[in-house]
Sequence to fold (80 residues):
Amino acid sequence: GFMGKLDVDRVDLLRFPGWRDVEWSYVDLAPGDCVYIPFQWYHQVTAAAGRSINVHTWYWRPETFDARSCAEPVAAPTLA
Fold:
């Protein structure tokens, strides 16, 4: 994967004019939420100040995406 130092909030549009044409999406996640990011989509993760755990899992995508799997309730993990 690309682990570049691109700050999407401060892209030099004179040097990189193609960034004007990029379609942007924004996702604000709450604790326990997940987001599916399609294969090879560029993304930036920004966490609020304080403690945060971000987990990326790379896997082969299924033939078709089943949105119902995101709607199933998941029990909160317990910490020992």
